[in-house]
Structures are given as C-alpha cells and as structure tokens.
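This is your field. Have a critical look at the following sequence-structure pair:

***
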Amino acid sequence: MKEIKAGLFLALGGGILAGSFDLAIIGPSLPGMARQFQLEPSILSWAFTLYALFNLLSLPVLTGLADRYGKRRVLLFSLGLFSLSSLLASQAGHFGLVLVSRALSGIAVSGIFPLAPSLVGDYIPEGRRGRALGLIGASFGISLFAGPLLAGLLLDAYGWQSLFLLAALLGLGATTLALIFLPRSTSAMPAPIPWKSLMAVMLAVGALAVLLSGTAGRIAGPQGMFPILFGILVVAGSFLLRRLELNNAHPLLPRGILSDTLPRTVLMLGIGTGVIQAAYIFLPRYLVGMPGITDSRASYLLLPIVVFFTLGNWIAGHLSDRYGPRKVLLGGWLLMGLALALIGWGLNLNLYLLSTLFFGLGLSTLESPSLRYILVHLDFSSYTARAQGLLSVFISLGQLSGSALLGMLASTGNGENYGAAYRWMLGVVAFAMVLGLRLRK
C-alpha cells in the first residue's frame, strides 16, 4: 500500500509539475517569439490569451467527462495532450502553430490541475490528505522557481523552443508514471455538461478578447466595422448565456452564488487576480527593453518575485487567521499598486528590483490565502465546493482579459509601450480596493 501511495504521489505531483512548468516558461519565451516572428504586443499576447480562453472553457467540460468516464482516463488524456501541445510548440516555425499549441495546453491543464487533488481524496485516507495535498502542491512551487532558472540557462544558447521541448519531456514522464501507478477508475457517475451554455461563453468571451486586444481594429482599421461587430457578439453571447442558464436544469453557473453579495464580490476580485497574473507573465517582454537585459537575464529577474511570492503565501496564511482575510487582501492590493507604479514609471533595473518585493508579496495574497479563505468559510453549504471551482473560472477570465488588454495597451505609442500598459493597470488595483472595502464581514 505504501508503495502504491508513493507512486500515486509521484504520478500526481509529476502532472502538476509539468502543467505549472508551462506557466513558468511562457513569460520567458515571449521575447524570443516576438523577435523570431516579428510580432507586435497585441498579437504576441494571444500566446497567453488563447491558453486562458481554452482553459476557461475546458474546466467544466473535462471535469464533467471525468465524472462520466472516470478521472484516470481523463487525467491520462490531459497529460498526453499536454505532451503533444508542448512538442508542437518546440517545433513551431510559424506563430500560427504556436497558437494551436497554446490552445491545446489550455485544454490539457484544465484536466490536470483539478483532477490531481481530486484523486488524492479518492485514494488517500482522510487523516493524511492534507499532507498529501501539501506534497503535491509543492510541485507547483518547484516549477515556479525552476522555470525562470532553466530559462536563464537555456534561452541564449538554445532558444525559446528548448523550454517547450523540456515541458514535453516532463509531460511524457508524468504520463508514464500515471499509467503505471494510478489505480483503475471505479464506475463513474454520469454528469450532464451544459454544452449550449459553453458555446455562448465561447462566443462572448472570445469576442471580448479580440476587442480588448485591439486585434479587430488592427485588422479593419479604426474606422472599420470589425470592432462594432465583435462588440455585438459580446452582447449577443452574454444575452444568450443568460437565457440558457435560466432554462437549464443543470446550469453552468450556480444560481445561488451570484445573487449573494459576498461570493459575487469574491468572484469579481478573482478576475482582478487573473489580470495581475497576466501582468506577471509579460514581465520578461517588458524587461528586455532595458539596456543590457537579454532573454536569459530577464528570466533570472523573475526569481526575486518567486521568492517573495513563496514567503508571502506563508505570511498571508498566518495573517488571515489572526487579522482576517479582508485586511490581508486590501494590503496585498496596496502592495501590488506600489509594484505596478514602480514598474510603469521607471524603466530602471534598481526600481524593478525594488518592485519585486511588492509584486511577490502582493501576488501571494490575491488568491489562495484570501479569496479562497473567504469562500471556505461561507455559510452556503449547498454550493461552497462549486464556488471554489467557479473562482478558478473567474481567475481564468481575468487572465484572458489581462493578457488581451496588456497587448492592446502596449501597442500604443511606438508599439512597445509596456510601461504605459502597467500604469493603466493601476485602474484594476483601484477597482479591486473598492471591492475589497465591501468585504466587511
């Protein structure tokens, strides 16, 4: 039994390690992609925007398929798809193939991240689940640190493609471990998937991403009809989703959760968290604009943020228990505002290094120790579990919106104005602070 559990830890931890490594290397890869394919920021941002879009749409699909066909099968499918998508990126000679691989990666991780901890609940005794989840969660921290470090070692010598080749090898290793050690799935319980609602979400959110990135205007020109057309698609998709959800016996969005002020506010703050995560992804692209900063050095410059983020998670968890998550959350957004101000108004290495303290500590408070802490303690037992999953969806929506918005804002002026993009994101901080003040209980 102990050997099976050790193998289970290896398999599930390997899956989390591979999926999170993809997130750790996409930022360091962006400068090399931009040069190789001659991309302006609004187009480059789609390397992360498509990932977030397909991740958002696939979360309810793959978790529903796991209930219908078994978690082991869906996790193996997700790991295999991740390996294939990373291999495609490593061999891409055109940005279109990169975009295809990013969409496939978004689908893959939507099956890896929720199913790995779920399988712990299936096969590990209740008294040992906390430690098991902690060991598996440590894989995320390892990849978050190893990604920029390995990128710094490989980028200048082998190019950005080498990072995705390494991700493919990690995915292949995790797939092999899962085939060997994951127990056969027990009989699954059929669960309906709201396909029509998902199509409405794809219509509204996809059109919104095109609008926010400025892609529609650049295709047809500022006087063209494309921006208006995509605006109509956003409204039409939103209206269609509302109608479908009202008549759906198994709605995509839990009906009760959006009618209560507290969980609704938490979900809106989740969108802000996703926007800031997108801002972190694009930092290497911003840093290579500094004199003497190569792709490798830009990757190394992410490491202070990772260190402060890791430290901040521990601090924020303890402070939430002592002073309440609301104060911690407001403090985190204040720190994030200071970080964005330093980054946006000074293309200077010393100012950036100072900002890493505020950025890492601030980012560590925006999701897990604060928002999820609040949802865990909600007195809404009928949908607390679904609220946690829905928070992940709203964070993905924020990642998508933030990526598209960063690309559009950075394309202003001379076409590489990332400083202005980070300054504009101070508006997100201000809005989040206003929402945070509403969390009085």
About this structure: The chain has three domains: 1-187, 195-249, 256-441. The longest helix spans residues 2-37. The chain has a mean pLDDT of 81. The chain is about 80% helix and 0% strand.
